[in-house]
Structure formats: structure tokens, C-alpha cells
Amino acid sequence: MSDRYSVSKAVVTGGAQGLGEAIALRLASEGLSVAVLDRNADGARATADRISSQTGSPVFGFGCDVSDRGQVKEAFAQAAEAMDGIDTYIGNAGITRDRMFHKLTDDDWDQVIAVNLTGVFEGLRAAAPWLRTEGPGRVVLISSIVAKAGNLGQMNYIAAKAGVVGLVRAGALELARFNVTVNGIRPGFIETPMTAAMTKEAYEATMTSNPLGRAGQPEDIAGAVAYLCSTDASFVTGHILDVNGGMAL
Ligand SMILES: NC(=O)c1ccc[n+]([C@@H]2O[C@H](COP(=O)([O-])OP(=O)(O)OC[C@H]3O[C@@H](n4cnc5c(N)ncnc54)[C@H](O)[C@@H]3O)[C@@H](O)[C@H]2O)c1
């Protein structure tokens, strides 16, 4: 592993596809061991095997629904056993259930908060015993541009993603004494299976309005995560990094 990293054992939630997969691939290419956790257990294992053979780094896949506290505890314990500890936690798993707020069902609200906010918190809580004893450590939590800019039809998602910003601020202060940095990323529009569900019109409107004139790619987010996990960012904590091509300044 290069001198650019003082950490070596990362858990990535929601790592079977999309941003999580790109983050896991980037960290494994940098020489870290990685545990990919995803509610899609087969997907997590398949992605882990693919990344491992591509990079030569140890990559493990475990089934884990982050909205289930018991599963989170168990999967983090499995990851720690496989990697001989955890010093890096990437809280990435997320879902959308978009509707104008007067049409949101109880389930739309509860599910999005359970996965995107409580699930991110539970991952931090499950990783904490290892983060506290291993030090130095890195935590990167994935928020969203909409936590800053707002958006129609995403009140549940925006509330959860704004809550993630709160977890970053609080976590940075609580974990600093253990030499663990806690930062967040607010991705803009990034091409993944999540955004593939957008209508053609919404996709084109988002593309043409971006100052850099393109959609973000998963690798754009993975690069930002790699920086925040590297020794270059060892004095950066409690920061929320916008990676959005200038879409919301
Ligand atoms: N793609 C974007 O434009 C964009 C923008 C801003 C923020 N984000 C955030 O980035 C993160 C990743 O998004 P993506 O675009 O890669 O989405 P995606 O839907 O392509 O991938 C999400 C992954 O998370 C997993 N997942 C979903 N619910 C889970 C649960 N309860 N437990 C464990 N795993 C679960 C899915 O199985 C999937 O593998 C999400 O938190 C999302 O809100 C994405």
C-alpha cells in the first residue's frame, strides 16, 4: 500500500453497485482491504470477487440491510473478522421514495429515514469500537446536493441527507480524540442505477444545466472519498465536500 494511506481496512455500505462499487474499487486499487456490505447479498459477494480479482486486494462481500440494527452489528463484526479490524467506514447505502410531500406515505418516510439516516448512524455506531481502538481512522458519509439546494418531491430524502450532515459535524467532534476524521460528500447528479430511473427530460435538463456540461461519474465521487481517506486529508474533519460540477455553489 502507498504512503498516501495510514488506514487499511474499509467497510463500504451499499457497495454492490453504483457509487459504493466505485468507492470500493478505488480503495482496493489503493491497496486497502475492503468489505462490501449490501442488502443485495449476492451482489455484494459478486462485486467483492470482481474487485478483488481486478486489484489483487482482499475484498469481502456480506449481506446487510442497514435499516436492520441486528444485521448491521453482525455484518460489521464479520467484516472486522475478515479484515482483522476496521479503520475506515464509508456510509453510502441509500434509497429514494420520491413524491410531493402531501402524497408521501408513512412507509415512504419511514423507509428513507431508516436507510439513509438511521442506517448511516448504525454503521458508525457498529464501526466505532474498532475505529476507537485502531486509530488513525477515516469516516466518509454520503449526503446529497439536495441537502444544500433542496428539491421538489424529496422531503423525506432531503431530511435524511441533511441529517447525515449533522452526523458528520457531531461525529467529527466525538471521534477526533481517537484520531478519526469524519467528513461528508454531497454528490450532485451522478450516473448510477439510481439516477437511471430519471425521465429522459429530467436527465437532459440536469445535464445541460451543469456548469461543467456533463453528468458526474461514480469515479468522481470515489476520487473524493480516496482523498478524504488519504494522509493528505489528515487535518480535514467535519467538512462537507460538494462534488457536483458547480451545480449548487
Ligand atoms: N447517484 C446520484 O446522483 C447521487 C446523488 C447524491 C447522493 N447519492 C447518494 O449516494 C449513495 C449511492 O447512490 P447510488 O446512486 O450509487 O445508488 P444505487 O441505487 O445505484 O446503489 C445503492 C446501493 O445501496 C444498496 N442499498 C439500498 N438500500 C440498502 C439497505 N437498506 N442496506 C444495504 N444496502 C442498501 C443497493 O442494493 C445498492 O447496491 C446513496 O446514499 C445516494 O442517496 C447519489
UniProtKB/TrEMBL annotation:
Ketoreductase domain segment(s): 8-188
GO MF term set: oxidoreductase activity
SUPFAM superfamilies with a match to the protein in the record: NAD(P)-binding Rossmann-fold domains
Stored InterPro entries: KR_dom, NAD(P)-bd_dom_sf, SDR, SDR_fam
Keyword Oxidoreductase appears in the UniProt entry: yes
Entry-linked Pfam families: adh_short_C2 (PF13561)
Oxidoreductase listed as a keyword: yes
Keywords, comma-separated and alphabetical: Oxidoreductase
Family note: Belongs to the short-chain dehydrogenases/reductases (SDR) family.
Annotated protein name in UniProt: SDR family oxidoreductase
Lineage, top ranks: Bacteria, Bacillati, Actinomycetota, Actinomycetes, Nakamurellales
